[in-house]
Amino acid sequence: MPVVGMVGGGQLARMTAQAAVGLGATFRVLAASESESAALVTHDVVVGSHLSPPDVAAFAADCDVVTFDHEHVPGAVLASLESSGVLVRPGSAALRHTQDKLAMRDALTSLGVPCPRYAPVSSVADVEAFADGYWPVVLKAVSGGYDGKGVWVCSSPLSAAEVIGYRIALLAEEFVPFRRELAALVARSPSGQGAAYPVVQTVQVDGICREVIAPAPGLNPEVASAASALGLRITSAFGVVGLLAVELFETPAGGLLVNELAMRPHNSGHWTIDGARTSQFEQHLRAVLDLPLGSCTPSGSFAVMANVLGGTDSDIYDRYIHVMAADPAVKVHFYGKEVRLGRKIGHVTIVGDSGDNVEAVRDRARRAASYLRWGTEDGD
After folding, report:
1. Beta pairing, strands 170-174 & 180-188
2. Signed CA dihedral, 94, 151, 111, 213: sign only
3. What's the rounded Cα separation, in Å, for the pair 369 and 346?
4. pLDDT digits over 234-279, tens only?
């Protein structure tokens, strides 16, 4: 059976390991420590750094294909693997568009993909010229940002000056007064087969995804189809192998703008474990192994996923029992992480049927996530 190596030992690798069991693939992880989320549940764990060329090369030597649970492996390391004959999926050329936001914006713009107005900036004067009197302006780190980190909404030149002072490569983008945020999750195999999950609505709080509703309620079917087609078009143009998550702004007029890209399993697809015929984690493995892709058909009328963040009490077992007893339809997934305030430690999913009300199910998911965090159903 093929050996799939995933660089990164976080919760995405942990959930991919579970999917590998069903496929019969041998799964190994390069983790920073033996206590990382995926290392706790994976038999074949190599402890090393994704920033170390020798560590990554030694890990890859025993894999048939290498993939990732994050975008932070340096491009030079990936290129070195490829030049030595290692099968890297997605490859370094594709991953560059998730590692370098300016390269992503330039490439998307060249394809005619709608994006927010943007420009590289290196001084307050650059930001002021870009703003042209219209504030706020969004500043983004060109590389290294995730979960709201590396993104600053600046309301004035003074706040922009603070970010400029960090002396990192920056990109300025227009502030988009969007109606809501959406995500299109698609997959592509080396053979060129593509598959698309229903377009979902995501709810972000302080830059962290807190809730996903699949499919996005009330989304015009033509807009949903266009979003999925856009995702598949990007996978083909960029040579993506595996999953691609396209994070989108839905504008008040109903149009779409691309916000971010991720070439790996994604928070917007966690609902697929319980709510789709093929989970995103199995789909990613199928794609990187060039197996026929699985069905993306939902297993219910809709699904709601709510992230569970750490609270102030690390003893969650009693609360876990309460949630299971109070609402047996709630599926709880924990990541084996130490509880820290505000840290993602798991998620809950409820799959609804035609007789359920979406808002009522959203309320149930929120209450379950709140109880697991705080011990009360009316927290945030």
Report:
1. unpaired
2. positive
3. 9
4. 999 999 999 999 999 999 988 999 999 999 999 999 999 999 999 9
What integer pLDDT is reported at residue 4 of this predicted model? 98
Question: Residue 220, exposed/middle/buried by CB under 10 A (0-12, 13-18, 19+)?
Answer: exposed
Q: State the Cα–Cα distance between residues 182 and 256, nearest whole angstrom.
A: 9
Check pLDDT > 80 for residue 205: yes
Q: Rounded to the nearest 10 degrees, how much is the dihedral formed by the CA atoms of 141, 144, 148, 150?
A: -30
Angstrom distances, CA of residue 142 to CA of 94, 100, 135, 246, 285: 16, 5, 20, 17, 29
pLDDT for residue 59 is more than 80? yes
What length does the chain have? 380
C-alpha distances out from residue 225 to 186, 194, 241, 287, Å: 12, 14, 21, 22
Q: How would DSSP label each residue in 205-226?
A: ETTEEEEEEESPTT--HHHHHH
CA pair distance 57, 188, nearest whole angstrom: 25
Reading the block at residue 10, the tokens are 């976080």
Give the other-Cβ count within 10 Å of 216's Cβ. 24
- CA 279, CA 296: separation in Å to the nearest integer? 8
Does residue 132 contact residue 125 with C-beta atoms inside 8 Å? Answer: no
Residue 321: partners with Cβ closer than 8 Å, 6 or more residues away: none
This model's pTM is above 0.85:
yes
Closest C-alpha to 174, from 125, 131, 133, 124: 131
Provide the sign of the torsion angle of the four alpha carbons 312, 316, 318, 322, taken in this order: positive
Q: In 122-239, at which residue ranges do the beta strands (DSSP E only) sit?
A: 137-141, 151-154, 170-174, 180-188, 194-196, 200-205, 208-214
> Which helix H or strand E contains 243, and what residues bound it?
strand 242-250
Rounded CA separation 235/109 (Å): 15
Tell me what pLDDT residue 177 has.
93
271-330 pLDDT tens trace: 999 999 999 999 999 999 999 999 999 999 999 999 999 999 988 888 999 999 999 999
Mean pLDDT of 79-102: 96
Residue 310 confidence (pLDDT)? 95
